[in-house]
Amino acid sequence: MDDQPAPPAARTLRTPLGEFVLDETAGGVVLLGATVLGLLWANMAAASYVGFWSRSVTVGFGVVHSHETYVQLVNDGLMALFFFVVGLEIKRELVVGELRDRQAATLPLAAAVGGMVVPALVFLVLNAGHADLRHGWAIPIATDIAFVLGVVALLGRRVPPALRLFLLTLAIVDDIGGILVIAFVYTDDLHPGWLAAAAAGLALILVLRRLGVHRIWPYVLVGVPLWFCTLESGVHATIAGVILGLATPARPVGGRRVLEELEHRLHPVSAFVVVPIFALANAGIVVSRHSLSEALGSTLAWGVFLGLVLGKPVGVTLGAWVAQATGIGRLPPGLRFAHVVGGGMLAGIGFTVALFITDLSIGTGPSGDTAKLAILGASASAALLGGGVLLAVSARDARRASD
Question: Which of the two residues, 137 and 254, has the higher pLDDT score?
């Protein structure tokens, strides 16, 4: 069953861009609330916060089981659903969305690549003399589309619609880059037996697809064991979610639009439940004079902060400029490089995936808290700077229009 582009009418059903943006924008508000709640909980009752998320639970049954803390269950389990939805979004965009049109996608793709490479280089330069920290180079490469679209929504009509689409496409490419990094860089020692079992699960998923099975429950019955086998294999369990998302057919199966139906049902769950719980479990950092002093003197913190606040806009703008100058891409109508600069600054709001990669690369403890503190500071700074630039561009355009 080949994934051919669906007819134009299909592109407006169930999960149109407007619905996606609305979910992400509202989800950004909930995410902000969960982040604030996590910070308040950790700073007002640190023992309660740590004690709760450190509780252990057993996943599986009999000899086939794994012991996970609550925070590990969130990061390994719930976030698999988040990455499943990401996989669905990537599949949709590749087959019937903006990434299907290569010429239209080239410029935001180049901007996204620049926005990943330059922040990583900034981090590596600042931490060149710290072998124990260099593993965190991927922390500042991510963009949190929920927060970005939340800021864009606050700006309203001051932002051209083309910028929303540009940022959405950039964030999707960012997601692809982040997924590849998680899969190939932050993978533990592999266990061939479990990996083979996960591969067998994926093969069974593809067989079900080939047979034209369009009901969802058979895939769930295979998908859950596939996730568990991936968890035990040494590959991060969230990759199972991405693989299942990418394996979902983008064209109708038996007259049923499976991908659109899944995305329509699960995207709100991801945006309003999974990601806020992740923030609550991971953003609870004790903010004190000591922790702030430690962060100000840490190359880890400065690598993360400058990677997001400086590296992101420089990389995004440079990537877009190269694509435009070489003729391989073009700015969409209504979008100028002033908007790209402001959008690049907003792309420095890393947050969700940045926190996730921090857990994989730096781990918990003082260094992890320092990196998370830098992520929070950088994300807030990027939102203010990017919003300020876009407001200034809008004001200048309004003055020119009135002259």
Answer: 137
Greatest alpha-carbon span in the chain? 76
Pairing of strands 56-61, 64-69: antiparallel
pTM of the model: 0.81
Class of domain 15-187+236-396: mainly alpha
Contact 89, 172 (CB under 8 A): yes
CA–CA separation, 83 vs 243, rounded Å? 9
What three-state secondary structure class fits 59? Answer: strand
Interatomic CA distance for residues 4 and 37, integer angstroms: 45
DSSP state of 159: S
Tell which residue, 352, 333, 334, 20, has the closest CA to residue 153.
Answer: 20
Instruction: Decide: 35 and 279 in contact? Cβ < 8 Å.
Output: yes
pLDDT tens for residues 175-225? 888 888 888 888 767 788 988 999 999 999 989 888 888 788 888 899 988
H helical segments located in 191-311: 192-210, 217-233, 238-247, 258-269, 275-282, 289-296, 299-306
Which tokens hold the place of 223?
């998908």
Sketch the domain layout of the chain as residue ranges. 15-187+236-396
Query: Residue 250 has which token pair?
Result: 């983008």
pLDDT digits (tens, 9 = 90+) for 282-327: 888 888 888 899 889 999 999 999 999 999 999 999 999 999 999 8
Q: How many other CB atoms are there within 10 angstroms of residue 156's CB atom?
A: 8
User: On the CB side of 165, how many CA atoms lie within 13 Å of its CA?
Assistant: 18
SS3 category, 96: coil
- Token match 């355009």: residue? 397
Inter-axis angle of helices 161-184 and 102-126, to 10 degrees? 60
Pair of tokens at residue 272: 């309003």
Strand, coil or helix: what is 340? helix
- For residue 243, give the nearest of 260, 264, 219 by alpha carbon: 219
Degrees, nearest 5: CA angle 323-327-329: 50
